[in-house]
């Protein structure tokens, strides 16, 4: 389908595709098998200028004036995820860690932290989830207590993407437990801050090139100027805003994985012979491919539409953001499962890329809000909107 | 360090179709691109600039359409690109081309001039050394590594058939590079965006103080007398079969021996 990309968007697609095909494709199997962080690929993305697509030009990024650059981030993430959803995630997760700064930080904080992320010199990470606070972020136990001109952080964050590899962490902690969600604040914590260490690196089903670790804070002293926005109690609003902005990016990762699996399936079906003919000649396979293609295109249309709407300045887009994250991740799981089916026995083997795509797809239904949480958000909004209409 | 990189536009060999009748290249449908060896020269220029500071300018001589090829270098990150284009230059051989390119280099000013080792269409490998002759500067060909470089001196490794020569030369210097020297970078997004808007300056022969009596077909001492594709000669194919691999191998061995290839 022709989405009438701008020249800039077309260049982002081509640049990302070139990196994906020439650089990422030859090493994806290696990184998946070894589960190590793909720094050389991050460097390729940085050199190509793909790390600051959603960061405004005045902070060294390439987000066009009057836009949030979400569509640009989405296009790059989709292209790279077609080849490897795990390697593509290093950049997308850095965006997740950077949104709290973009959305809530003071000018001084933005000037200090954004340029290095935009240039790809440093990665960022988002520290919200805890062992007991997953979907229920309100159950957070990490605390930040003001002492002089510092905050003392204590607690453990779990399953943090880009953990250990990133330099800049946006960490959520309770500054006043008695206030509930309004007692949550966001801090920028630099790697190397005394009292800030990393726990075990997780051994995951998929996205194995991506690093997932614990962040451990033990009497970690964070200077007060690192309180995002300079105001206590804004953490929860920043976290929700961040997730609303980042979900199209996860959706793009899911979309890319699905589109990559479809490409692989088509190529395989056209060369695999059984019963004396190519399996692409069998209607059973044709219909599978056709349905996969329809679903991928529907996901793409939704992801692009939401991204463009957010970029154009839509204000109340939490539901739209949940729409595209939910749908694209469901499509990714379904399409990659069918891709393995089309490959048959070969699809189950690690020699072929589709089993990895299926493993990588699963996380998109889970992180940054499970599919069920997306549906909760969508339903809550629907009911609220309907109730408002009646009045 | 002011570095001039000289590049050539050549047919894109990844995009070539062969006429099934004659077996020759269909030149008219082939796209054009930068000579692959010149990409390594551009990359080396960028790396030297990153280390030493200064400026990298890419130049070519050719028709106006060569501007698009120069934009590849802009997208890779060079500072400027210049095209020398003039009807008087048409039909220039390597001698005349080298004179014209040397005039460009004189106008630009340089500490170092880089070339690919040869172009993949003409394969002469003459323009680099000839430009150095016209400029009366040292030239080191087949460079596979720059070991050290200062404002006045350079030490490089030359890739020879039987090993490596280590050569020291004074600056300004001309180098022709082999593909072993580096891995050219991909075009960056910022580079592509700059390339899209970049207006390649076009110089005429007069702009580089060139003497019309030195260039063009008329003033080229060499001529291509005739050019043709060699006739395709098909050998006879013989299929050898056997019950199993051992028998097949035996049969092949004996046949090759009968033919006199194994004594």
| Shape annotation of chain B | globular
CATH superfamily of the largest domain in chain B: HUPs
Q: Helix fraction of chain A?
A: 40-55%
Q: Largest contact between protein chains?
A: A-B, 16 and 10 residues
Shape label of chain A: globular
Fraction in beta strands of chain A? 5-15%
Order of helices and strands of chain B: EEEHEHEHEHEEEEHEH
Instruction: State the distance separating the first and last CA atoms of chain B.
Output: 61 Å
The low-confidence parts of chain B are none
Could you report the average pLDDT of chain B, rounded to the nearest whole number? 92
Question: Biggest sheet of chain B: strands, sense, closure?
Answer: 9 strands, mixed
CATH class of the largest domain in chain A: Mainly Alpha
Tell me the CATH topology of the largest domain in chain A. Butyryl-CoA Dehydrogenase, subunit A, domain 3
Please count the helical segments of chain B.
6
Average pLDDT level of chain A = 96
| Helix/strand class of chain A | alpha+beta
**What can be said about the biggest beta sheet of chain A?**
4 strands, antiparallel
Spatially, the strands of the biggest sheet of chain A line up as: 2-3-7-6
Topology pattern of chain A, helix = H, strand = E: HHHHHHEEEEEEEHEEHHHH
How much helical structure, as a percent, in the residues of chain B? 25-40%
Structure description:
The complex is a heterodimer of chains A (391) and B (263). Chain A is α+β, with helices and mostly antiparallel strands and 391 residues long. Chain A folds into three domains: 7-122, Butyryl-Coa Dehydrogenase, subunit A, domain 1, CATH 1.10.540.10; 125-236, Butyryl-CoA Dehydrogenase, subunit A, domain 2; 237-385, Butyryl-CoA Dehydrogenase, subunit A, domain 3 (Up-down Bundle), CATH 1.20.140. Chain A is built from eleven helices and nine strands. Chain A has a four-stranded antiparallel β-sheet with strand order 2-3-7-6, with no helix packed on it. In chain A, strand 8 and strand 9 (277-278) form a beta hairpin. Chain B has 263 residues and is α/β, with parallel strands linked by helices. Chain B folds into two domains: 2-214, 3-Layer(aba) Sandwich (Rossmann fold); 233-263. Chain B has six helices and eleven strands. Chain B has helices at residues 36-52, 66-76, 94-108, 127-135, 189-197, 245-258, and strands spanning 2-6, 9-11, 32-34, 55-61, 80-84, 112-116, 139-149, 153-160, 163-170, 173-177, 202-203. Chain B has a nine-stranded mixed β-sheet, sandwiched between helices. In chain B, strands 2-3 form a two-stranded antiparallel ribbon. In chain B, helix 2 runs antiparallel to helix 5 (189-197) and helix 3 packs across helix 4 (127-135). The longest helix of chain B has 17 residues, at 36-52. The radius of gyration of chain B is 23 Å and the shape is globular. In chain B, 37% of the residues are buried. The model of chain B has no long low-confidence stretch (mean pLDDT 92). The chains are: A alpha+beta (391), B alpha/beta (263). Chain A binds chain B through residues 7-8, 11-12, 14-15, 18-19, 22-23, 44, 47-50, 62, and chain B through 185-193, 196.
């Amino acid at each position: 389908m022709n989405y009438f990309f701008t020249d800039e968007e077309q260049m982002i697609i081509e640049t990302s595709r070139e990196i994906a095909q020439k650089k990422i494709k030859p090493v994806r199997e290696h990184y998946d098998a070894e589960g190590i962080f793909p720094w050389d690929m991050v460097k390729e993305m940085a050199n190509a200028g793909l790390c600051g697509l959603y960061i405004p030009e005045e902070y060294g990024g390439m987000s066009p004036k009057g836009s949030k650059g979400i569509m640009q981030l989405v296009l790059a993430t989709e292209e790279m995820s077609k080849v490897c959803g795990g390697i593509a995630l290093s950049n997308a997760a850095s965006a997740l860690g950077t949104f709290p700064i973009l959305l809530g930080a003071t000018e001084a904080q933005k000037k200090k932290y954004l340029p290095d992320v935009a240039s790809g010199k440093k990665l960022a990470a988002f520290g919200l989830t805890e062992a007991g606070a997953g979907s229920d972020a309100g159950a957070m136990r990490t605390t930040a207590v003001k002492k002089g001109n510092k905050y003392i952080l204590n607690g453990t964050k779990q399953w943090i993407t880009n953990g250990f590899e990133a330099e800049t962490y946006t960490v959520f902690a309770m500054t006043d437990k008695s206030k509930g969600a309004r007692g949550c604040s966001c801090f920028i914590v630099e790697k190397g801050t005394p009292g800030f260490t990393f726990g075990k690196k997780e051994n995951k089903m998929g996205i194995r090139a991506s690093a997932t670790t614990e962040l451990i804070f033990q009497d970690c002293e964070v200077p007060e100027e690192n309180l995002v926005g300079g105001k206590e109690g804004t953490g929860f609003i920043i976290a929700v805003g961040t997730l609303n902005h980042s979900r199209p990016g996860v959706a793009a990762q899911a979309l890319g994985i699905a589109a990559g699996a479809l490409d692989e399936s088509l190529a395989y079906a056209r060369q695999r012979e059984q019963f004396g003919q190519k399996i692409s000649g069998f209607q059973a396979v044709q219909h599978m491919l056709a349905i996969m293609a329809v679903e991928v295109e529907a996901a793409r249309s939704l992801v692009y539409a939401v991204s463009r709407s957010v970029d154009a300045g839509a204000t109340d887009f939490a539901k739209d953001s949940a729409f595209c994250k939910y749908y694209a991740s469901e499509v990714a799981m379904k399409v990659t499962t069918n891709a393995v089916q089309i490959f048959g026995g070969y699809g189950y083997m690690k020699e072929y890329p589709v089993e990895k795509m299926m493993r990588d797809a699963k996380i998109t239904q889970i992180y940054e809000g499970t599919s069920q949480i997306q549906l909760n958000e969508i339903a809550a909004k629907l009911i609220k909107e309907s109730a408002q209409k009646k009045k | 360090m002011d570095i001039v990189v000289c590049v050539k536009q050549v047919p894109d060999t990844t995009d070539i179709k062969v006429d099934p009748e004659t077996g020759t290249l269909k030149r008219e449908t082939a796209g054009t691109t930068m000579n692959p060896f010149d990409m390594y020269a551009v990359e080396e220029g960028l790396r030297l600039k990153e280390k030493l500071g200064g400026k990298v300018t890419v130049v070519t001589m050719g028709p106006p359409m060569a501007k698009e090829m120069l934009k590849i270098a802009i997208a890779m990150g060079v500072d400027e690109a210049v095209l020398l284009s003039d009807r008087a230059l048409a039909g220039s051989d390597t001698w005349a081309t080298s004179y014209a390119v040397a005039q460009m280099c004189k106008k630009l000013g340089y500490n170092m001039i880089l070339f690919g080792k040869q172009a993949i269409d003409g394969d002469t490998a003459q323009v680099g050394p000839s430009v150095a002759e016209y400029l009366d500067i040292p030239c080191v060909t087949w460079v596979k590594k720059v070991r050290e470089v200062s404002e006045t001196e350079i030490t490089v490794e030359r890739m020879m058939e039987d090993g490596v020569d280590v050569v020291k030369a004074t600056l300004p210097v001309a180098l022709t590079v082999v593909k072993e020297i580096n891995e050219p970078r991909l075009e960056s997004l910022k580079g592509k965006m700059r390339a899209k808007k970049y207006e390649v300056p076009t110089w005429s022969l007069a702009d580089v103080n060139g003497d019309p009596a030195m260039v063009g077909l008329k003033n080229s001492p060499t001529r291509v007398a005739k050019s043709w594709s060699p006739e395709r000669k098909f050998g006879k194919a013989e299929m050898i079969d056997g019950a199993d691999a051992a028998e097949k191998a035996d049969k092949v061995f004996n046949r090759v021996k009968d033919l006199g290839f194994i004594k």
